[in-house]
Amino acid sequence: MPTARSARPERSARARWHRRGRIKVASVPAAHPYVRHLAPVRELRDLPRIVRLADPDPANPSRVTFTRWWPPVMLEPAWVREHHGDFDLFHLHFGFDGVDPSRLTELVDTLRWAGKPFVHTVHDLRSTLQSERELHDARLDVLIPAADALVALTPASAAEIQERWGRHALVLPHPHVVDLTAMVRMRHRRQTPMHRDRPFTVGLRVSKPRAGEHPFTLLPTLVRAVRAIPGAILQIDAHPDVLGPAGGRFDVDLAAEVERAQHRVRVRVREFFSDAQMWDYLGGLDASVLPYRFGPHTSWLEACRDVGTAVVAPVNRHFGDDTPVFGFSMDDDGFDEESLIDAVRRAYEHSPVEPVSVDERIEQRQSVAAAHARLYLDALAGESSQAG
């Protein structure tokens, strides 16, 4: 890899990007709904158009893909060296959980050699995939100090970034997750008599387990909570690996608990949802329980808001920080059973929850898209936010 500083391409002034009318971004990833919904619904006035490169296909990096983005090919320093002429700015969101910190150091060094500004949206201050914090912290210790600009999803996350690294992060809200057309359809469905007259339904999704997720711990208490509500149902949707006897991770204890609790409990064993199936699933619930001991502000929470499903979730610094949830107490040391029962009861008492309006999501998306365009212009002009 070249090391001579004179070999680096020159950064352009901010005005030039206005004249060009577009900024090409290597976005990691590009196909995820969060990133797709950073694009404006309507053209932004007086700001350049943001063009995000399609994700290279992990099976054949010479091709692009619009479905599978993991593992991200763009995180390879060799890809940056080969393709640095194809983009103006590099924006990392997520997908680096399996990357060694030394490789991330090489990545940011390669971006510096290429003269490409580096923007990082800090989605995960703690990885939901790992119980121990050390390795994820080491990755963040590379990425956050090296970034020319940082984005956080909540004020609490920005405060932690300032406290731990002395860096300022621009707080931008999470855009909608459900497609706008699907949001309209789900709103109409919720207004039908059949939907209004069905039992109050609490959902618990049991997928392939992650370190930060503990649905099995909550199950007995959720059964108690549902039985205390007239006619309510607990709906468990589980992946075959978890509740299917042929699954390699079949959970015997969970299966036995479900069998004992069949009264007022509905169980469906099914494969992973498509996007359309996911929206229909969430729209069929009155409340969705998020069983996270730790973790970031999540797309699941925002999808629930899109379709008008109440969120029952642990209250911590990053969950429900600026989004209404029916909170209960849960952390690494355990959870408070009565607080969970109370959260489910409050969700019932406040049902139905009004979804975020489509117009509000469109205006939010326009604002978030404009903020990203301005952030990119600042980064390209060399106006870094290295200090708090």
How would you characterize this protein structure?
The chain is α/β, with parallel strands linked by helices and 388 residues long. It has two domains: 190 residues, 3-Layer(aba) Sandwich (Rossmann fold); 170 residues, 3-Layer(aba) Sandwich (Rossmann fold). The protein contains 15 helices and 16 strands. α9 links the parallel β9 and β10. The two termini are 32 Å apart. The N terminus is likely disordered.
State the main characteristics:
single chain, alpha/beta, disordered N terminus, 388 residues, Rossmann fold, six-stranded parallel β-sheet
Layout of secondary structure:
Layout: H1 14-20, E1 22-28, H2 33-36, E2 49-52, E3 55-57, E4 60-65, H3 77-83, E5 89-92, H4 101-114, E6 118-121, H5 134-146, E7 149-152, H6 155-165, E8 170-171, H7 180-190, H8 193-196, E9 201-206, H9 215-227, E10 233-238, H10 240-243, H11 252-260, E11 265-269, H12 275-283, E12 287-289, H13 299-307, E13 310-314, E14 326-328, E15 330-331, E16 334-335, H14 337-349, H15 358-380
Parallel strand pairs: 1-2, 1-5, 5-6, 6-7, 7-8, 9-10, 9-12, 10-11, 12-13, 13-14
Antiparallel strand pairs: 3-4, 15-16
Helix pairs in contact: 4-5, 7-12, 9-14
